[in-house]
Amino acid sequence: MALTGIQILKMLPKKNCGECGIPTCLAFAMKVAAGQAEIEKCPYVTDEAKATIGEASAPPIRTIKIGAGDTQFTTGGETCLFRHEKRFENPTGLAVLTTTEMSDADVDGRIERFKTLRYERVGVMMQADFIAIKDSAGDQGKFTALIQKVLDNCDANIILMSDKADNLAAGAKTCGDRKPLLYGATMDNADDMASVAKESGCVLGLRGTNLDGTVELSEKLQAAGLKDLVIDSGARTLRAALEDHVVSRRAAIKTKFKPLGFPTITFPCEMTDDPMMEAMIASVLIAKYAGIVVLSDLQGDILFPLLLEQLNIFTDPQRPMVVQEDIYNINGPDENSPVLITCNFSLTYFIVSGEIEGSKVPSWLLIKDTEGLSVLTAWAAGKFGADLIAQFINKSGILDKVKHRDLIIPGYLASIKGELEEELPDWTITIGPREAGHLPAFLKEWKPSN
Q: Residue 251: which domain range?
């Protein structure tokens, strides 16, 4: 059961030192209780209290980290059933399958597509996360050779798949610090797999025969001392996989049922031979709680929609996506280039900057911090008024970059033109188009007034 802030405070040293970044121990305890701070940030809390508080405040879906370094993948950590209740914490990981039975050309193609199929949208880089390596024939030499090939050619996080504990142990040793996910624990090999996971320090993936079997296997592995697991109920149809994911999530969130309180891994690649059906199954499971989805291949027309779905689902609906307040130079502007201003809502920025870039007109784009609100919403909320715009213009440094004093404002802010002229008497205020799509034609005809 979760601890209250007062209960947590009683276990803290009450130094009010501020070394955790929060002024008082009471405020820190309240943030820990609310899940907004980690108990490890207190340098003086005892190990016993840290363990007690950490266990009580842990999310019902355990947070699991796979890999190492900058590409380390985090899954789990979820606390709700529905995105509108709070937010989903960690996006579903996408993996591509390689096997020891594939030809070199097939493997090379998957590695190359993993490296090249990367997309930037609203400032977020979207790409696959894992390469899954399957020991199809039980041949340890082929298995480790394929692992080494993947390690040498890309920075992917690794999933090792085998039902032989010795082969997984050799694979984990080959991966070294890359810390792969080891997949393949069953009731038949659970003891050996647990030993490999503990010795290598890697996360272990288990496969049940059904949901009840998954619970039994999860309990057995936890009793063996494993805390970090990824679960697969064994379902290989869309209906069964969907039902198992929903039941698992509800049991973990609603009743804190620990055997199912782990992120899941699922295999659309084993449910159909039709790439479009596989993509459809993947899209359903991304929306319904899958921690990792393994695909048979990566193709741009299938991967991009899945990445876009992932982005939409796992973007916090209560926190607008923003870009930094700053001056952005587009197309190499100089002292005679036009100056435009808009809000820092990411979608607005990328649409406006994209249209300016497409116009080929060198321009200065001023981005004003409006706390992620769009132009009209920010103006209505008093965050994009004439006085605030004037303050930003004067402190932004744009005065040193251009010799003219012409400012182009969004067409939706036409009503504040007079106020802006009063706040910025040395500037000529020009009302730009309402729609970003009209910016290229507008900019090509623009000329400074002074």
A: 64-314
- Mean pLDDT, range 120-128, rounded to an integer: 85
Other Cβ atoms closer than 10 A to 334: 11
The CATH number assigned to the domain holding 398 equals 3.40.50.11600
One domain for residues 365 and 331: yes
Alpha-carbon distance 169 to 74, whole Å?
22
Listed in sequence order, the residues at least 6 apart from 302 whose beta carbon sits closer than 8 Å to its beta carbon are 275, 276, 278, 279, 295
Question: Which pLDDT score is estimated for 35?
Answer: 67
CA 157 to CA 185: how far, in whole Å?
19
Confidence of residue 214 (pLDDT cuts 50, 70, 90): very high
Structure confidence at residue 406 (pLDDT): 94
Residues 106 and 239 in one domain: yes
The pLDDT score that the predictor gives to residue 162 is 97
Whether residues 298 and 202 fall in one domain: yes
Sequence-separated contacts (24+) of 266-273 with Cβ below 8 Å:
266/232, 266/235, 266/241, 266/290, 266/292, 266/293, 266/294, 267/232, 267/236, 267/294, 268/293, 268/294, 268/295, 268/296, 269/97, 269/294, 269/295, 269/296, 270/236, 271/236, 271/237, 271/238, 271/241
Angstrom CA distances, 357 to 4, 351, 439, stand at 52, 10, 10
**Lookup: tokens for 417:** 């033109």
Q: How many CB atoms lie within 10 A of CB 275?
A: 16
Indicate the number of domains in the chain. 3
Residue found by looking up tokens 């497409």 in the block? 358
Q: Mean per-residue pLDDT for 52-78?
A: 87
Say whether pLDDT at 276 is over 90.
yes
Whole-structure pTM over 0.85, yes or no?
no
Which of 402, 288, 407, 399 minimizes the C-alpha distance to 341? 407
